[in-house]
Amino acid sequence: MPASRASSASTTSRWLGLTALTLPVILTSMDITILHIAIPTLTRELEPSAGQTLWILDAYGFLLAGLLIVMGNIGDRIGRRRLLMIGAVVFGGASAVAAFSPTPEVLIAARALMGVGGATLMPSTLSLIRNMFTDPTERTKAIGIWTASLSAGIALGPIVGGLLLEAFWWGSVFLINVPVILALLLIAPLVVPEYRSTSTSRLDLVSVILAFGAILPVVWAAKSAAEDLSLTATTWVAFGIGLSAGTVFVVRQRRITSPLVDIALFANPRFTGAFIGAGLAMFALVGVMLYKAQYLQLVAGLSPLFAGLAILPVMVAVGTMAVASSSLVQRFGYPLVFGVGATIAAAGMFAFSRASADGSLMLVIVASALIGAGIAPMMTLATDVVVSSSPAERSGAASALSETASEFGAAMGIAVLGSIGSALYRSNVLEGIPRDVPTEAADAITSSLGAALGVAEQLPAEAAEHLTALASQAFVDGLAIASIAGSGFLVIAAIACPVLLHRGRSPGPRR
């Protein structure tokens, strides 16, 4: 075969492989937000407590964040495509269990198992792209498409969820994963080549345990502190365990010959700035998406379908900016694109905090589009910086590190911003509930806005109107404080990330 034709075939094969790899990316990211649109319906059907509701949302992200680094290293050793296939089977099976969960406890366990499967999918896809696209310009474009798929999945979640809930029961938002997983299992072996590291070193199990021990207790402690608006003795102990395990983990990575995480990468300010930017971006994005889905349905009164369609501008903004990121960075450089993106997202987050209980539909839509437009280039370029900073044989571990920053940020966004809103909601509602309301009804009203509206449907017209107004205002008050907090974190990113990226940039124009 002539060289030009072989090259063309090779190029076609790479892009076909990339197309297949976007399937699990869209699926796992969509699963972060598709549940948000189903929470009101799920609350009525399964009747979870406020704490169980947060765990239904959080369990997936917690296991995902805790296992990403481990799975990235396993993929380097056993083969990244093989790990992708194994993870797809686990994710699909857990999705089927989640779809037919009879109790909140079963659903939480299924979500956790989905997190285990998801942890194999994300680093596998990104590390395979790192090996398939060796040309830096081509790789940046491929990662831009990968990030656009990630962002599109987050934005598509509520839309797909709305369509499904119009016709089916709440479990359909999980069952939709199964046919996509089956398509991946059929297509991937045909168009995605296998890659594995040539290293024969063993996986350090002590480091695996320490990684888990560092991430999960800190996430749990942050969630508990935000939910209770206080630091209990148990919370301090969890923080202490996590920080101690993290310290030992870092020391061990410096001393062993085959570490899970190459700590030396953080000596590069450019790498550190991208890592921080990815985490803070997902912290804000996922936190606000949780509130937006509930606001559109429970406050603005939209059906699940129309609530999903109202999020369409976010998807357009995210997809457009993710694809345009490679062009923007070539013209303006990483520091400026990061700084401006974080600033736009922070402004959108602050605007979102101005939403009122009387209805601010257009404000919410425009603010969310600004948030998505600002965060998309941050996510794309952060991934590009992290992956390009690592050698090819460690791409799985580096990809997992990038995803850990994103998923840890997402889990913390739900845990912290979600818990802040829930705590303020409970506090404000308790102040306005009449004393003669039965204890059981009061517990339901204070658990969530959806439960409060369910109680209101059973009351006389005047009492129902009073309770609806009280609960809606309490929810919006919690939304406002959580959004302002998210905006503050994005302001920190707008200042810190450009400084770090500028200090560590490579010689050459605007990089």
Written description of the protein model:
This protein is mostly helical. It folds into 2 domains: 3-203 and 260-503, MFS general substrate transporter like domains (Growth Hormone, Chain: A, Up-down Bundle); 204-259. The protein is 83% helix and 0% strand. The chain has helices at residues 3-46, 50-78, 80-99, 104-132, 136-167, 172-175, 177-191, 205-228, 233-255, 269-299, 304-309, 312-332, 334-352, 361-388, 395-432, 439-447, 449-456, 461-503.
Quick structural gist:
The chain is mostly helical and 511 residues long. The chain has two domains: 445 residues, MFS general substrate transporter like domains (Growth Hormone, Chain: A, Up-down Bundle), CATH 1.20.1250; 56 residues.
* Total number of strands: 0
Any idea what the CATH superfamily of the largest domain is called?
A: MFS general substrate transporter like domains
Unreliable residue stretches:
1-9
Instruction: Classify the secondary structure makeup into a structural class.
Output: mainly alpha
Average pLDDT, rounded to a whole number, is 77
Order of helices and strands: HHHHHHHHHHHHHHHHHH
- Whole-number tally of structural domains: 2
Query: What is Rg?
Result: 22 Å
CATH topology of the largest domain: Growth Hormone, Chain: A
- Shape verdict: globular
Number of H/I helices:
18
**What is the class of the largest domain in the CATH system?**
Mainly Alpha
Strand content: under 5%
Main sheet, how many strands, which sense, barrel? none
